[in-house]
Design a protein that fits this description.
This protein is an alpha/beta fold and 370 residues long. The chain is 29% helix and 17% strand. It folds into 2 domains: 20-138 and 239-368, Periplasmic binding protein-like II (D-Maltodextrin-Binding Protein, domain 2), CATH 3.40.190; 141-235, D-Maltodextrin-Binding Protein, domain 2 (3-Layer(aba) Sandwich), CATH 3.40.190. The chain has a 7-stranded mixed β-sheet with strand order 3-4-5-2-6-13-7, with helices on both faces. Strands 10-9-11-8-12 form a 5-stranded mixed β-sheet. The chain is globular and about 60 Å long.
Length: 370
């Protein structure tokens, strides 16, 4: 996540700088009016942060944020042009206090929400969703350790041999997968992590985000810590972490809107990382307005933007198309995750990528050129 959680770790990541290749003409004023809902509502998975920059990039200069609603509302604009509808971006995580997919099925006003591939699989039976855009090609979630205590470690597998505890939040399926792969021992996985910077006091490892904790550790007032980390993606847990998804039962009704809106979302993500300052100011203003324990400094936001590109978290994947969810990768992940989730006692349907992914609304001419 862009800044460290004080109470939980359902966190996220942030962005870099880039150019894009786009031969699509800029939509005219009011292009979404009468086609999309009068207010396009996006339910995020956390408090405002630079990870969500592509969505906030579509927020006009009239954006206002309310502590009472936990939402930022303004004119939906694309490259400065009013598209004829309003955009409402809702805070998630502790502010929402319910899973995004649950909120999507409880509130018909929500147009789309952030739904990772693992969540789409877990909730397919009771709340099916379809991902239409993937803003992050790599999950920024990591396991971190103090390099000074493990100078020869090349990765998590090495560190796991010499620490007693790997602190995680709850019972993440990826941790069970790493145990099954022999990377971790079951007895060393501790589910009581609270989001604190414990490497300052303990020789352990803990989950976090490449876009947040390394920066936090490097800037500790008590003394900088050089944190090493391994992306869980690099160890085989290759889910798409933060897809923009709709309810499956609304695919037909929303299709005309998505045909216009999804390409705007693709390009907005790239516009944001190329020139993030305006949008980061909107994000920071929202955080201040919500007046919670969650904070975002200019340094937090800038670090996130830098790391998205530096770590290839934003990228095209295996094709030149930016924002697609590759079906082979999704199917590979489903094959790994299904037995793990069933082991946790969850009822998991036998599905394929075709059940939870639709790349048909993406503009094939939009490509990341970072």
């Amino acid at each position: 996540m862009c800044a460290l959680s004080a109470t939980a770790l359902i966190l996220a990541s942030c962005g870099g700088s880039a150019d894009s290749e786009n031969t699509t003409a800029t939509p005219s004023t009011g292009a979404l009016a009468g086609i999309c809902p009068d207010t396009v509502v996006v339910q995020t998975d956390w408090f405002p942060e630079a990870e969500h920059g592509g969505i906030y990039e579509l927020m006009g200069p009239d954006a206002t944020s309310s502590k009472d609603t936990g939402a930022t509302i303004g004119t939906l604009t694309f490259q400065g042009i009013d598209q004829g509808v309003q955009l409402e971006i809702r805070a998630g995580g502790p502010f929402l206090q319910t899973p995004v997919v649950t909120a999507m099925y409880q509130d018909d006003a929500i147009t789309m929400g952030y739904v990772g591939t693992d969540v789409a699989l877990t909730r397919y039976i009771d709340a099916p969703t379809i991902a239409v855009f993937n803003p992050l090609n790599i999950n920024p979630q990591v396991v971190l350790w103090n390099k000074a205590n493990h100078p020869s470690a090349q990765g998590l597998a090495d560190v796991a041999k010499s620490v007693d505890s790997i602190f995680v939040y709850g019972d993440p399926a990826w941790a069970r997968y790493f145990v099954a792969q022999g990377i971790l021992n079951k007895d060393q996985v501790d589910s009581n992590y609270k989001g604190n910077l414990l490497l300052a006091t303990e020789d352990a490892a803990h989950q976090g985000f490449a876009t947040s904790e390394p920066y936090k550790y490097a800037n500790l007032e008590t003394g900088a810590i050089d944190a090493g980390y391994t992306l869980i993606h690099d160890l085989g847990w290759n889910s798409y972490a933060q897809n923009l998804a709709i309810r499956a039962d609304r695919l037909e009704s929303l299709s005309p809107c998505l045909e216009l809106l999804v390409p705007m979302m693709q390009q907005a993500q790239l516009d944001f990382i190329a020139a993030p300052d305006r949008t980061n100011a909107i994000i920071k203003a929202a955080v201040v307005a919500y007046d919670s324990w969650w904070t975002q400094s200019d340094g937090d936001l800038a670090n996130c933007v830098a790391q998205l590109q530096a770590l290839n978290i934003i990228d095209n994947g295996d094709t030149p198309l930016f924002g697609d969810l590759e079906e082979s990768r999704v199917n590979d992940f489903l094959g790994k995750a299904t037995p793990i989730l069933r082991q946790q006692g969850l009822e998991i349907a036998d599905i394929t990528a075709a059940n939870i992914v639709n790349n048909g609304f993406l503009d094939p001419d939009i490509s990341y050129q970072g």
